[in-house]
Amino acid sequence: MVSADLPAGLSDWQQAPRVRALNDRPSVGAGRYVLCWLQQALRAYDNPVIDAAVRLGNVLRLPVLVYHGVREDYPYASDRLHHFILGASVDLADGCRRRGLAFVRHVDREGQREKGLVYRLAAEAAVVILEDQPTFVARWQSERVATRVDVPVFTVNAACLVPPALIGINVRGRTAFLRCHEPERAHWSTWDEEVADVKPYAGALPFTPDRSENADLVALIANLDIDHSLPASSMHPAGRVAAEARLARLVAEVLPGYASARNDATRPDGASGLSPYLHFGVLGPREIMAALQGARAGGQHKRKFADELLGWREWFHFQAHALAAPERYDRIASWASETLAAHTGDARTEQETLAALIHGETRDETWNACQRQFLIDGWMHNNLRMYWGKRLIAMTPSPEAAWATACYLSDRLSIDGRDPSTYGNIAAMFGGSPSDRERPIYGRVATRGDGSTRRREGGTEWLAAASLRSVPRVSIPSEVPVDPYLTGEATI
């Protein structure tokens, strides 16, 4: 709920369940602006973080300054992620201007370093509003900033339709979660956007903002000190126009047969492909649900898609908010970690090198087909991910190594990696329902075959072709990296 530190004019705010105080600084006071710092919710409209800042700015009679920064040294920074992030950022800037809001961006690079820029921007702010992301860089950067600035910091959930805070703290399983979640959906499906009634901020800034537009991004990114061996994904172009086109495709092509086609990786119309745009907030769940409700498709297809978007995705977000580090192996079920540990010493004849795993050049044709989607497209069909993750348990030296490898491959290669949903899915690969029988290496963790794809008409041929797709040759680390947040080495 909204902290008492906010002005009385916000005490009955409809969005209150989305908002929580991230520090205990004194009441909101003097400042040049309300700082709205975005890391992942990269959309100008239907964005509860921006709306929160605008509402607060109107009450305080202060302008809103929207800031987005991209560094070279965030984990797995690459051409792929930089192109997607900065393409979204350009459209975010345009949208903010159309909303009457000042927007500034900084792209960290040689000759244009801005050490401690968030802190310097916060020093001139009356309050900082940022997004409530429970995983990866956004989480630990937000937590660190909140402890070090001298102004109140509030975090706002923009990733979920239903604010996780409404669900409660004693919900243990997905069935109980749905009982709380489903009745709230209608209430949170509509929203009146906040309108700024204070002129855009035009005052002094502690840096020179980056003015790059789409035409400049290729040259800009080419000169950054990031992973240039991993190219941008042609399957998932950056930006708002691409996201809207993908949403239109959902309505026209995917949704009419979704319930029956969603598990068929061989069908181009079987999956929405929206997850990269959801991960970086180019699209929000309210907008997608509005398109869903207006689509001409059978009720069973709409219900199934809503279950994936809300029943599963928001369940994983809810889980992540309750975990100290959703990326860590210790999140898996205790029975699963115990049975996997009991079989750590089993012979592992199917181990593969990291180079073979990254490039999809293992002895397993189906696994290669899966991995090459990650490497080429920056995305993997959901039905393939379970096979891909479970096979890693046998293809690496230990269950802990399998977990680290799964997270690394997803985090580095997939545009929708580093997300509560992807970590939740990986946890399901290492757990789920216990098997009735015990197997070498896996213990009672169920294995997964490739029959759901191979037995489909043309499935064998599809797998063979997918396993031979030409892949980029990317750099290979000496060992699987670990998220610096988990080792205490994170910096900002």
Strand order of the largest sheet: 1-6-5-2-3-4
Shape: globular
Mean pLDDT: 92
Strand content: 5-15%
Largest sheet: 6 strands, mixed
Radius of gyration: 23 Å
Per DSSP E runs of 2 or more residues, the count of β-strands stands at 8
Q: Structural class of the helix and strand makeup?
A: alpha/beta
Describe this structure in words.
This protein has 492 residues and is of the alpha/beta class. It is 44% helix and 9% strand. The chain has 21 helices and 8 strands. Strands 1-6-5-2-3-4 form a 6-stranded mixed β-sheet, sandwiched between helices. The protein has a two-stranded antiparallel sheet with strand order 7-8. Helix 1 links the parallel strand 2 and strand 3. Helix 11 packs antiparallel against helix 12 and helix 16 packs across helix 18.
Question: Strands, helices and their partners?
Answer:
Elements (H helix, E strand, L loop, with lengths): L18 E3 L11 E6 L9 H13 L3 E7 L8 H20 L3 E6 L9 H7 L1 E7 L4 H13 L4 E4 L17 H8 L3 H4 L25 H9 L17 H15 L3 H4 L13 H5 L5 H10 L4 H24 L11 H9 L11 H6 L5 H13 L4 H14 L3 H15 L6 H10 L4 E6 L3 E3 L5 H4 L4 H8 L17 H4 L5
Parallel strand pairs: 2-3, 2-5, 3-4, 5-6
Antiparallel strand pairs: 1-6, 7-8
Helix pairs in contact: 2-7, 11-12, 12-18, 15-16, 15-20, 16-17, 16-18
